[in-house]
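Final report, results section. Input specification for complex C-07:
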Amino acid sequence: MKVLIPKSKPSKGAVGKTGLWRTSKPVVHHDKCIKCVICWAFCPETTIIRFSDNSVDIDYEYCKGCGVCANECPVKAIEMVDD
Amino acid sequence: MIKEGDMVSIIEKKEGISNVKVVTANEAVALAVKCSRVDVVGAYPITPQTSIMEYLAKYVETENLPIEIVRVESEHSAMAVAMGAAAVGARAFTATSSQGLLYMAEMVYWVGGSRLPVVLAIASRAMGAPWIIGNEHTDVLLPREWGWMVLFPEDNQEVFDTIIQAYKLADSTLIPVVVGLDGFLLSHTTMPISIPEQSLIDSFIPKNTPKPYALDTANPFTHGNAVHSNVYLEFRYDIFRTIQEAEDLVDEIDREWEKITGRSYGGVIQEYLLDDADVAIIVMGASSGDAKQAAKNVREKYGIRAGVIRLRSIRPFPFKRLTKLANNLKAIGVVDRNISPGVAGMIATEVKFALYDLEKRPIVQSYIGGLGGKDIKVSDFENIFVELSQMVEGKVTPERAKWIGLDLSLVEQYFEEV
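Structure output:
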């Protein structure tokens, strides 16, 4: 008897471009950013791009616009704007 | 006065079996779980299942067994524990009844969809409202639509054996398995059971087999991740296909079990006096014994050629065996200790579905009875056999559903017209 198991391997955007879900988007004000990477640690969707110098940016293809990053940023360097 | 030890040796001598214990079906489940070398148990109490967990806790405590019993705050979590354990390749078990199953339902469905080989024992019990603890099979039958297989043994020995067979079935198909047992009629009734050598059980359901479904951090994947609408149907298709194909496997497992223990229950169906039968009753669980007695009685008393089809496997549904048996029958009464309100008994509807395509199909009559623990007597089964033969003669007209022991005066008493 043939036995199959459902397996989902981790891959980027396994269920599509979730950025389409967004109603507002986070914008990083680099002049205010202190490179603490708290936003990177807190993002539930791993859509904060972290560069080698710890500066950050947003992957808008997958960011759902939840606003957790803006909420967690200790220096208000991330602003949520209408998308 | 005869002590338990004396009783055991009398039974061993009389029945020619060894290593006998005199136990309730709940203890038989607990013993089978122990003998199946289960790793993790999600434990939450509900009548009439509770003592399964109590016995397991006792064994773990007194025999220092390597079973992790996780006491949780709800049935939902009990199944979540079993799912988590199974997902990493551990052998997992939990048990529930009635309202507990309803609360557990979301996780039961999740385990079915994730294809994890969990075994769930359900000590059957009717569901509220009105509040009740009496026996009924509706709860056990619900998971047949939830991606699980459903087996239903008749007595305590078969309960013990079926739990072990359920692990074989689950491990071989990656479909989880429900083992139903009649609440109170079995769960709280003491009978002798024979326990096979542990080494035989170990070779029947080995644990060191490859587990390609087990989560592995070195090779990460997930169970039950989100999918799009284009592929969910295919997930259901594969569950459908596997359960359908498992019909022969249940028979095979029964034969294999017979080889090592000498005990066979007929696989998906246990046949009783069917060789020359004109009329038959389809029934599951503990009441089957009364149905068999009734078949014997009406043969002697009235010369009715009566037989019993005891349904052991509800999923996989025994299409092949049932259609073959039905070819030789003129009328079948399906006695359902469960109900699909406004339709009929749940098994009766499935039996009709299974037999519709037969060229010469028998009369199929649904009988609903025993709900909430109401008694179904041997005489009730006898009356059904008589009525079925009257249907064959055209003296009685079949109806969508007939009721066993329905007392309309109680309707007057407990209801008020508004």
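The first helix of chain A runs from residue 38 to 42. The beta strands of chain A are 24-28, 48-50, 56-58, 78-82. This concludes the modelling results for the funded period.
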